[in-house]
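Re: the request from the purification team.
They wanted to know what the chain is likely to look like in 3D before they choose a buffer screen. I agreed to run a prediction and write the result into the notebook, where they can find it.
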Amino acid sequence: MALQAGLEKAGVPRLQSAIKWEQIAEPYIHRKGAYAMRKRKEVIFGAG
């Protein structure tokens, strides 16, 4: 949660992960990530 909160304060609106870490990042959903990038928002993707 600290990582996600820190990134939100830094202006990074989305943090998605293919690993199920709901406390740290929302689950990877292609549609949501693609939409955020089309809106020119930063998206960080994480995978194991």
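For the purification team: The longest strand covers residues 14-17.
Please add any questions underneath this entry.
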